[in-house]
Design brief:
Helices cover 43% and strands 8% of the residues. By secondary structure, the protein is an alpha/beta fold. It has a 5-stranded mixed sheet with strand order 1-2-5-3-4.
């Protein structure tokens, strides 16, 4: 499907010369045009599956698409048309619509390099509603090729130790499956990992976080220049070097404070009191720990919550983010390999059967899937707060009628926490099993608001789609 068929036909000739190949001069991102093609005339060997049946994988059909538009244009609250189409492709898995009506159909999509992060985030801050729905509805979303992250990236950088350990896990998978990255296509992360050697220890969560901020590279360059040439006192370079040294020490102290709090929380969580005195001691230590977090200044407290959640979703088995579950490192592409010279990313998306309650959407159903969408949206509006607190704000009594009936929320082996307050799981760190348990408990709760009541209580989430590169329309840093 290509509306500008005259322009692209010469490039498509090798494909069009094959039998059973048709070029349709329409666009595939207008659903009317796409639905006209999804019919026996063009797909005689495909059979539409009943929607009330659990969908199964269909490996006889493959959908490929190029959504890498330039320049980008925002559309109906989405940053770009590509963001909108990606969201609709993922939503079609749940509703068994468009080409997903033929079963669970694999998709290969070229998209703008920055647009991939909506469904394939690399940190908890970017894990918004689209990303969570993508995790729930797919076996995997793998980045096959993409550009190196911008060296000047300031926002959404997580602890370097987490990234290195994630890359080590991927390198082990690749070695086991015999996959090799062609020379010149390796990511900087993979190069860094190789330079450290095979016996380099994994340190995620075991030492204070280190962030690869732009100023760190600048400081290294100034330190090297200073050691060879020297800077006269009071010169701009000398002043800049002094400032960056101070900034590094200041951030190191803050990261040490965060690490101490995380270690103390871990120690409290490991306590298994039996006697009444031991239980009281644990409660006292937990309350004192929460007081320490409350006493942090706002900026440092937000950084603590960020470190807590990034570490939490990574240390689960399997990790929560699709990015950390990847089976291979992406191949690095360059701007000059595309026209116009704007990098694109190739995503491989394999849908999976979703929980029956999540698939129940629209008229004639229990609306449990619609309820899930509204509850998830409300949870993510307070994404850093304790889950029990957010549930209670959504429906009075939910902290007693829903939360206790979700065992995974309080089971450390399944990504939960037995502690409360700032040690409790936050909405943005919920894994798939926990989200499904919340939905099941909600639907079974006798006092749960109806779907119609929920619609009236919730509002659109402005932080999910159409956010700027910092992830926040208001220009505030989203920690």
């Amino acid at each position: 499907m290509e509306p500008d068929d005259e322009l692209y036909t010469p490039f498509l000739e090798p494909l069009l010369s094959r039998p059973n190949t048709t070029l349709v001069p329409k666009t595939g991102i207008i659903w009317k045009d796409l639905n006209d093609v999804l019919c026996p005339k063009y797909l005689p060997h495909q059979t539409e599956r009943p929607r009330d049946e659990t969908p199964t994988r269909n490996d006889t059909l493959l959908v490929t698409a190029n959504l890498s538009f330039y320049p980008k244009k925002s559309f109906r609250g989405f940053d770009s048309v590509a963001d909108l189409v990606l969201y609709q492709f993922i939503s079609a898995i749940r509703t068994s619509s468009i080409f997903q009506k033929y079963g669970l159909v694999r998709i290969l999509i070229w998209t703008g390099d920055d647009e991939k992060l909506a469904i394939l985030p690399r940190s908890v801050q970017r894990r918004k509603r689209s990303a969570i729905e993508a995790e729930i509805s797919t076996e995997w979303i793998t980045e096959i090729a993409g550009a190196e992250p911008d060296d000047q990236q300031v926002w959404f950088v997580r602890d370097r130790a987490i990234d290195l350990e994630s890359a080590q896990n991927v390198a082990d998978k690749m070695a086991k499956s015999g996959l090799k990255i062609p020379p010149g296509r390796e990511t900087n992360l993979l190069k860094d990992l190789r330079s450290r050697g095979k016996d380099a220890p994994t340190t995620a969560g075991k030492q204070a976080a280190v962030f690869e901020r732009p100023y760190v590279n600048e400081l290294r360059a100034l330190e090297e220049e200073s050691s060879t040439k020297g800077f006269a006192s009071g010169t701009p370079k000398d002043e800049r070097l002094r400032y960056l040294r101070y900034l590094l020490r200041w951030n190191s102290k803050r990261n040490n404070v965060i690490m101490d709090l995380l270690k103390e929380r871990e120690a409290i969580a490991k306590l298994k009191p039996r006697a009444a005195a031991e239980r009281k001691e644990k409660q006292t230590r937990e309350a004192a720990w929460n007081d320490k977090v409350n006493e942090l200044n706002k900026d440092l407290q937000l950084q603590f919550l960020l470190a807590r959640d990034n570490l939490h979703i990574f240390q689960q088995d399997p990790p929560v983010l699709n990015w950390d579950r990847r089976a291979m490192e992406p191949l690095v592409v360059k701007n000059t390999e595309f026209f116009p010279n704007v990098p694109s990313a190739l995503l491989d998306i394999q849908p999976k059967p979703m929980h029956p309650l999540i698939r129940a959407t629209g008229p004639g159903t229990s609306h449990s899937g619609d309820v899930f969408e509204l509850v998830l949206r409300s949870l993510l509006q307070a994404s850093k707060s304790p889950v029990s607190k957010v549930l209670e704000s959504l429906a009075p009594g939910a902290s007693e009628g829903v939360f206790p009936n979700c065992p995974a929320l309080q089971d450390p082996a399944r990504g939960g926490s037995r502690l409360g307050g700032h040690a409790e799981v936050s909405p943005r760190a919920l894994n798939e099993q926990q989200l499904i348990e919340i939905l099941e408990a909600w639907m079974a709760w006798p006092f749960a608001p109806s779907y119609a009541e929920l619609v009236g209580r919730t509002v659109d989430d402005p932080g999910d789609q159409g956010a700027d590169e910092e992830g926040n329309k208001l220009g505030q840093v989203d920690f």
